[in-house]
Amino acid sequence: MTARGIDRRTFLVSVGAAGGALALGFDVRPGAQAARAAGDAPEITAWIVIHPDDTVIIRVARSEMGQGTLTALPMLVAEELECDWSKVRAEFPRPDENLRRNRVWGDFSTGGSRSIRNSQEPLRRAGATAREMLIAAAAMQWGVAASECRAANSIITHVPSGRTITFGQVAEAAAKMPLPKRVTLKDAKDWRLIGKPTRRLDVTDKVMGKPIYGIDVRVPGMLHAALAQCPVFKGTLKSVDDSQITGMSGVHKVVRLKDAVAVVADNWWQAKKALDALVIDWNTGDSGQVSSDSVRQFLLGGLTADKAGVGRAHGNLSEGFASAVTRVNADYFVPFLAHATLEPQNCTAHVTGDRAEIWAPTQNGEAALATAAHVLGIPPQNVIMHKTMLGGGFGRRGVTQDFVPPAVLIAKEVGRPVKVVWSREEDTGHDYYRPVAMARMSAGLDATGMPSAWHVRMTGNSIWSTLMPMTVRGGVDRQFQEGFLADMPYDIPNYLADYAIRNTHVPVGFWRCVNHTQNCFFKESFVDEMAHAAGIDPLEYRRRMIGKHHNAAKFLGVLNTAAERAGWTTPLPPQIHRGIALNEAYNTFVAAVAEVSVDTHGAVRMHRIVVALDPGTVVNPLTAEMQTESAVVFGLTAALYGEITIKDGRVEQSNFNDYRMLRMAEMPRVETVLMPSGGFFGGCGEPPVAVVAPALCNAIFAATGKRIRSLPLKNHDLRKA
Amino acid sequence: MISLTINGQPHSIDVEPDTPLLWAIRENVGLTGTKYGCGVAQCGSCTVHIDGAAIRSCAMPVSAAAGKNITTIEGLAENGVLHRVQKAWLDHEVPQCGYCQSGMIMAVAALLKEKPKPTDADINDTITNICRCGTFHQVRAAIHAAATA
Ligand code: FES
Ligand code: FES
After folding, report:
1. How many CA atoms lie within 13 A of A96 on its CB side?
2. Which of A171, A248, A443, A592 is the most buried (most CB within 10 A)?
3. B64 and B18 part of one domain
4. Cα–Cα distance between A472 and A465 in angstroms, integer?
5. Does B18 lie in the same domain as B69?
């Protein structure tokens, strides 16, 4: 068991919209000698197959949802394999094969910007291992010492004689070689592929509409289902009147689940029309009373609660406040947010007896498999799981596999393959939302304007304590406080960060960059408040507070670079104002400077944002840069418009007309400065999300003198008073 | 039975006339490159061409498309040669998850037909498709590149 209370073979999975999660696991021995796959593919190791024509197939266990793993992970393998990159193709192994082969591909979960961070070393090792086996096979064929042979560009050369042979020609023999006991990995300075801008392997298919996402799966004999889950979370189905739909064409069946109803039909539109014609009655219980207002009141209690889990504390807070000459106090608030992956949740299933086959766009294929087995009460070995391409993930499809249970239960009842597609409305109303949160900030500034004390009191919906209460010991959920713990860069002599958990009935989950998306807004906006109270330039103020932190150099590195690139001290055109923010998330250091205007109607526009990031090592600068732009759009969309509100226990928003997305016309210029300082691997897909809102809101303060303490901005009147 | 001409091929399909064209294309004809994102003409993932003009197929009943020339992403390349928008998309590595991209590409191809050299303002006004992955910069750059190709 790890600190989180789950080990490598166990998955935390949430299996229903009612909230709560289960730890499901497999009884396998990871790391045990894995059986080779049957079949005639010349598999050198589980990760690498080389065909006689030199085509190299590299298997990718993590999911591809736009973040570029399908390219970056093979790059790590190819770097050590020394193969010709133009011959590389990527392939997803099936989660059930992983199980059958003692989890030879390790963990399939894709989240927390972990794909590169956690797999880089095993993947580089896999490449080096296969290279040694190919060389050994060639050396044996030639009757020479392996130490006299070198591999480059898919060709092995016997250096003394100059003889050569291609990977494809020795692949068959190499597959039979014993695994080398030890391999040495290249020094970072010798990398040829890692760090080089590399085109994505899946782009050609994507411009032709070819990739198969979960929603595109077609299985012979398949029917289509539309789903209505109880609109009030944790509610259940009371009754269904289906008299209106008898005789509707194409309709096969109405399936009643504990907390949902589905109509199964020949095509999805028929299913959806029939579903809308049903008269459904739900048991909503007390949850039916909850509103955004009642949630807010509940959280306000958390701000003043006596009991709160302490995440970080040092010095003596009351002495720090006693010595202060100025006090700065502010309360902050952010709402629930939906993920809104452009591909709505879906899953296809075929259940026959005690066997099942499922297809899903999931960030964790093994968790999907475990969920199907658990819900059906069948052994995991009896489930075949196909992972498809994902139309966005953002954390929606990782721990929460809630699209699997309805699909397998409906398919079981129907006895034929069924594809269950959620309507956009269903998807918006049944998410695991980015938690609602509040922060009460109190700081004391000394005579020089610098903080002598800072108390950060947080409250809101804890992801871990709702999904897996056992992981939150002593009321401390460290993830909820991320950004305010050891990763908080500023030197504050007397400091307390504590958190009073206030869980609502709304299911919460991991949303791109998770709790940093709230906390960085709270932290960096309030630091700006302190700077203004002290009458010190916000950049200078931050610089003065960074010194003792063990990562001070990295924080200052990105902060100064972003400021320089943005020309922090240079004049701006009238109407345009700057804001700055700094953070560390998932081992990546990020600073941003936003240039923003607010017009006379109060309309906000971000014109430009400079994002400097130090993820230690950049595997593919091309995707890292695009992920940064992507993260800016994600953060900006949420800051401007993002808000899920609750009325009568249910979500009020339904589709993109009331849960608005950023569009082309609103896109700011994004300047990404990648400044890897070496020696570590940080994530790239998420960290920049967090700095966008505070950089934006600090610029709005510079423009209007209005301090934004709650999001989204659409709720604020920013017209000049 | 409704007769549709999609990518030059005739199809005779058995659906109710009020079925959105999107679902007929995806499920009855089996061309899944055209995507469902919202169903209410908000996101543009379902964009196809009807007689050369871009339309959001989730908001058009299949009956209204009968007898017209429908082009989907699968039919944009001609004789195996990618359309210049697709080529520009490759050059600029536009797609991330890729889900919105069929609709983006179809919308852009129609725009270029109407306005061979669109300005940024034209692009902002016309290409209102949602890309949740935020590929807007690449989309814009690729449009300008395709316009000069
Ligand atoms: S699915 Fe048609 S516009 Fe969104
Ligand atoms: S590329 Fe993912 S939605 Fe546009």
Report:
1. 18
2. A592
3. yes
4. 6
5. yes
